[in-house]
Amino acid sequence: MNKLFYPKLAANNIRKNAKTYVPYIITSIITVAVFYIMRSLSQNEGIKEMKGAGDVQYVMNLGCIVVAIFALIFLFYTNSFLMKRRKREFGLFNILGMEKRHISCVIGFETLYIVLLSLVGGMIFGVALDKLMYLIIAKIVGEDAPFGFYISPDSMIITALLFAVTYFLIYLNSLRQIHLSKPIELLKSLNTGEREPKAKWFIAILGLVCLGVGYYMSITTQDPISALLKFFFAVILVIIGTYLLFTAGSITLLKLLKKNKRYYYKTKHFLSISSMLYRMKQNAVGLANICVLSTMVLVMLSSTTSLMVGFEDSMNTRYPHEIDVQIQHEENTEAMAESKDELYDSINELISNDDSLKLTNEIRYSYYSLAFLQSGNEFLTADDDVYNLVPTVDLSDITCFIFFTAEQYNEFSGNKAELSDGEVLIYSCNDDFNLDSFSLLDNEYRVKELVPDFVGDDFETVANIYKTEFVVMNENDYNKLYEDQKSMDTHSLMQTYFGYDFEGSDEAKREIYHEIISLISNGSTSDEVGFTAYAESKIEGRESMYPMIAGFFFLGAFLGILFTIATILIIYYKQISEGYEDKERYEIMQKVGVSRREIKSSISSQILTVFFLPLITAGLHTAVAFPIIRRLLMIFSLTNVPLMITVTALCFVAFAILYVIIYSITARSYYRIVSK
Amino acid sequence: MAILEVKNLKKIYTTRFGGNQVQALADVSFSVEPGEYVAIMGESGSGKTTLLNILAALDKPTVGEVVLDGKKLTAIKEKEISAFRRENLGFVFQDFNLLDNFSLQDNILLPLVLSGCTYAEMNSALQPLAAKLGIVDILSKFPYEVSGGQKQRAAVARALITEPKLVLADEPTGALDSRAADGLLNLFAQINREGQTILMVTHSVKAASHAGRVLFIKDGRVFHQIYRGTCSNDELFRKISDTLTIISTGGGSDE
């Protein structure tokens, strides 16, 4: 036989199966490109020199791993799909006298072509887009990118290796399938009807339970710190639950419907229920895949976009003032108060001497804060052996008290509150404080009044994490409680806060910040004054945070696109393969007197269910995930809930529109196959 | 009055690119009386399938008309044609055409479900029919779980459940082994004795020899016909064989 026979045959095979192979190769190319870009960006010298580059490159590295895992699973999945369609062809080759090793040879060449096409195409795309991404990142971070294309040979080698190995594994899997089957089976493989699956109550209920627990975790988790871990568990539970419910639950439901003879033997339900049931086993996994991928896309896009869009907002929450100075000390003495005043004066002098800045707002207050575990109208501390008294401690039971003197309160509010011993004013920030009296560390307090507002937004970050009560008391009580709490293991320090807002250039703000830092010898405790002081600047904070947030946004958009393409492809393959399988059945139906109209309505009701079930479920998952994601984003000081809701809703709408477009395209090609 | 009248049917196919015209049926006329069992024989390419498709209202003739029980098939609107087919005709195919995703019972009930019957009506129609065809025990099975003969019985049940005016059978024994084929032919003879009109297209001399009348089609025309009269199956078998020999040895059409 001619040496070129196998390579030619392989090329021919791919050309003949273009309808299924072209989307496969395109996906493969995109996957290669995305992986290359991620990898190359994570190594990019230019980015390394940018500010906050470590975060961006770390995030990109994470992305690389995700894409690698995704590539392996997804390419395997689609290939098994292609092989299933082509078994008949191989059976025919086998019967016409090709041995299995010859077939293996042909498949080998096919795989080789696909690898080469994907790698070459992917690299070209990758190098071109890599530059674009680099420019975008540079633009976001606010630096210039050099001209010329940057090619990372190292990333190319890694990419080539990864995909070569992946395809080699896929090839081995194809060989296994060919070698295990007999020619007659290969020929018939398309026609063997799948057995009607059995209803699996246990698994269906297990799926419901998994989903329920996952949902419950998401809805009830209050604090962001435990949310991270819980989120991870909830995601796993929901994924498992989705697969179980789609596979077992759908079959069980359809079986139930079928048992109901009145319902089942209706023209509308008869055709669709039985044909859905018939193929549900393989259908279900595909549907669950679509659902899980769609949910991932939605969650990723909505959370990263929220972070990006809400960045300014979260910076304002995190840094209520342009520059703040925070002072901590333990001893509450006159000398301490004097040295704080001195510091305050010298900072003010520094600011007023700077001609390029105009002070627009300043704030100064002192406070201390204590966290308690609420139990009735008693508040327990860690010293009270809380774990014995209250067996399950949830962070949501913890109440944070922030104490102020009446003098300060009057200064802020302009009120003239007079408090006698034991009387307090309460401002409840996010919790409806409903006690008339309460005790802290054996001190009894009576609530004189609930006041409506307090030091502005300064405490919003704290208030969003814990239940927070602001307590105003007279000087006497204030000092007594402070002394009382010193004996606790978890005692608080006296905190003093100076906040400044300016008008002026960013440069000037930066300059004054550095001057203040050197003045207070940032973070170090000097024996002389006995306190620790440190300063924060909104501008510098923003600069260090922005690259990371932008990196997240990038990754979210990137993976979102990749997963969306995967979803589209799964849907497309599903429709095409089912079209071929259904063609014959619809022909038979027409012969025995089912009108075209009835067939069409049966098809649309099936496609509608099959298509929109995953979308609706994905929407539900995203909606339920929202509370926990909201908590997670608090870590990034993003607390603007309306903004997050809007972004999430917009993401869903955009995705749904794309989904409907895919639906109409694939539905049309399905009709065309079926009615040919 | 005849239950089926076929008048001067002519069918010309035009090939795809508008080039050649192929005449499948030249001029076919015959009629079928209620309760008759008619077999139509002919070689491949003689126009049998085209004729059957036109009778089944799956295709339209170029010229001529088909009247079923006083109703012109060509005059029925496209929208009503499926319902008409379902209610008046029963079909038995060579390759059964049972749907894999339905149990035998559901396959049989399909036409009734489409007509909007209640489950009670369906069941009362199904039970005696299944008993008669000997498939009561396998009703809940799926097509891929039963033998060819059983599948064909289920297909016959599906054809009969609507009590059609005419059963059209296209090579019903074509995919069966000889025992199953004998069984099916006996079944056809039995339901014919009970008054069912049957029109069967076949290659098989054996199958045709069970019919009451045999029509021979050649080159798109009815070439000859044989009535059973008082003949036994074997005698009819011989007559058919002789006729086929004459046709194939170039007896030619009488043009």
Kindly describe this structure.
- The complex is a heterodimer of chains A (676) and B (255).
- Chain A is built from 21 helices and ten strands.
- Chain A is an alpha+beta fold.
- Chain A folds into three domains: 192 residues, no CATH class; 251 residues, no CATH class; 225 residues, no CATH class.
- The longest helix of chain A is centred in the C-terminal third of the chain and has 54 residues.
- The two termini of chain A are 38 Å apart.
- With 255 residues, chain B is an alpha/beta fold.
- Chain B is built from eight helices and ten strands.
- Chain B has a six-stranded mixed β-sheet with strand order 6-7-8-3-9-10, with helices on both faces. Chain B has a four-stranded antiparallel β-sheet with strand order 2-1-4-5, with helices on one face.
- The mean pLDDT of chain B is 86.
Gross morphology of chain B: globular
Determine the strand fraction of chain A and express it as a percent band: 5-15%
Number of strands of chain A: 10
Q: What is the average of the pLDDT values of chain B?
A: 86
Helical/strand content category of chain A: alpha+beta
Determine the mean pLDDT of chain A: 80
What string, H for helix and E for strand, traces the elements of chain B in order? EEEHEEHEHHHEHEHEEH
How many individual helices of chain B?
8
Fraction of residues of chain B in helices?
25-40%
End-to-end distance of chain A, in Å? Answer: 38 Å
Number of H- or I-type helical stretches of chain A = 21
**What is the tally of beta strands of chain B?**
10
| Poorly predicted spans of chain B | none
Q: What portion of the residues of chain B fall into strands of 2 or more residues?
A: 25-35%
Radius of gyration of chain A: 33 Å
* CA-CA gap between termini of chain B: 30 Å
How many domains is the backbone of chain A divided into?
A: 3
- Determine the oligomeric state from the structure: heterodimer
| Sheet/helix structural class of chain B | alpha/beta
Rg result of chain B: 18 Å
**Residue share in helices of chain A?**
55-70%
